[in-house]
């Protein structure tokens, strides 16, 4: 499963795409379908679902938890950035899903104007790659402005499909 995700992301990341076409907004991020508790946009990309009372879907909540476990140290709380790494809440406004997967899995180096920035590869870190969709939907909700800063107060229950995938990915029984 992991190898398939990475190979798909690598193949797609080589396609030339105009950055204007990648601009995300609340309308493009709108959930139009659901599969085992995971919401998808019109293009089939993972997305978030926030109920009128503020309840977030499980994957958005999980993404908040995972981001704050592994990513916030460099990218700042709630993805707002730091002097060390960019604001992912801004980056995802113009970054598509395959590019996100590719960068998280493979890492990235930016050596412009004497300012070296390095994103390490997390493709072999199960605490990240097993939850890349979760982190993506959390940051996407932050990027389009539908999710405020801080821990979501309410969330949906974890689906059996999410439990099964987590067990399989993390090597549980």
Automatic annotation (TrEMBL):
Keywords from the UniProt entry: Heme, Iron, Metal-binding, Signal
Entry keyword annotation includes RNA-binding: no
Ranges of residues in domain Cytochrome c: 58-143
Residue segments, region Disordered: 148-173
Span of the signal peptide: 1-20
Highest taxon, organism lineage: Bacteria
Gene3D superfamilies xrefs: Cytochrome c-like domain
Molecular functions (GO terms): electron transfer activity; heme binding; metal ion binding
Composition skew (Basic and acidic residues), residue ranges: 148-166
Entries under Pfam families matching the protein: Cytochrome_CBB3
InterPro entries: C-typ_cyt_methanol_metab-rel, Cyt_c-like_dom, Cyt_c-like_dom_sf
Protein name in UniProt: C-type cytochrome, methanol metabolism-related
Native source organism of the sequence: Pseudaminobacter soli (ex Li et al. 2025)
Source taxonomy: Bacteria, Pseudomonadati, Pseudomonadota, Alphaproteobacteria, Hyphomicrobiales
